[in-house]
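Re-run with default settings, no changes from the original entry. Doing this only to confirm the output is reproducible before filing.
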Amino acid sequence: MYIIIFAFNIAFLAKIWYNIPEGGDFVTYEFNTKDFEIEYIESETAHSVLWERHCHAKYEMIAVAEGDITVTLEGQNYRLQKNQIIIIPPLLYHSVRANGEGSYKRITALFSADAIPCVLREDFAKQERNTAVHTSRIEKIKEICQKEDAAFFAPLLQSLMTEIFYDAFMMPQDRTKAETDEFLRKTFEYIDMHLHEKILLDDLARYTARSKSSFCHLFESKMNISPKQYILQKKLALASKLIDEGVPHTAAAMQVGYENYSNFYRLYRKNAEKL
């Protein structure tokens, strides 16, 4: 499993305005190819603000072109500043927070394992690395971001992404690993072991040696999400991954612990765009 932080920027296309009072004004550009779903986001914030918290069925890259953010990945914090990126493996819950007031420019890219060169794919899935690097290519990639001919520049984007995947293997590795606290470690361990079943909060509380109310309060204080919502996002992300791999919807529902397909389908449709 990889967790990679390094310099990056990427192309974008369509322009959409958002007005989010807490997070400031947002402007978003989109650039989608066969293998990558890209968003480039510019925003102004007046204070520290939590932008996102979610779980994806695909890999996600979060890059900072300007600003200072913290990505919290399953309880571990990764601080990203200008020209740095984190690559998040599928099914890992994460949040993104602006660390203070100012201008922010960030890029997100969703992609499946098929977008990674086949000779790198196996190691990319099973290993874990933390690496911070700057690249001289960023100015060239920024030039590409200004272009409007998506079809013309998509092959170049693919080539640059392939170079970035190779860079991740060639750069020196930081062997230190941030420690997750024991409470979260045990909680994530239990949920991952039972993600294919119905998960009861009473069982989670017993596994972590706490009362149900104490467990829920502590989990939400550490993760900024209730345990029920966390479990739901993990289950729906896994179901989405199974469906993308060709598993029928009804079978995917059963494999993530939903016996009532109607309930599963309602939740899946409601959250599909976030997965």
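DSSP finds nine helices and eleven strands in the chain. The radius of gyration is 19 Å.
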